[in-house]
Design goal:
Layout lengths: L1 H24 L13 E2 L1 H9 L5 E5 L3 H6 L1 E2 L3 E2 L5 H8 L5 E5 L3 H13 L5 E4 L2 H7 L4 E2 L14 H19 L1
Parallel strand pairs: 1-6, 2-4, 2-5, 5-6
Antiparallel strand pairs: 3-7
Length: 174
Amino acid sequence: MENIENLDKKVDDTVEGAVVSAKETVTSPLPKPPSLETKSPAGDLKNRLEWGEPALTIIDVRDRVAFNQGHIMGAVSMPIDKVAELAQASIQTKRDIYVYGDTDAVTAQAASELRNAGFINVAELEGGLVAWKEIGGPTEGTEEITHPGSDAYNVVSRLAHHRELQHQMEEQKQ
């Protein structure tokens, strides 16, 4: 009888140990998307969009002509001289905002104005539209339209692409 009780205890301990080990190993079935930083590379924004995170706004502070010619797909145009005023009228202050302009200096100025207007989650998109195009981000406008690839809606392909981007970003940091 003692042998059976000892065997039951061993089985219970083994199962409990396996469950604890599995929980430690698999904390999340999918990697977490990048968080919002003050300065953000284009790859971080693209990753968030690929993960389907809708709670963000992309603001283009270039002039209207440049915006109409081409911009990040889904971006809204807000001229830099009115960016704070227009954003306050249409965007919640806690919403994640990515902003870009003609140069990183203009982008920084727009981000500063948004922060001074009470927006707390503002990221400056480093390299702007040029950096976005370099990583193959979708754009739209009168001069060009690039759509996501045919595999963009295939979860397996998106995860493989995301893993590849993460690997490339890690290599760049080293």
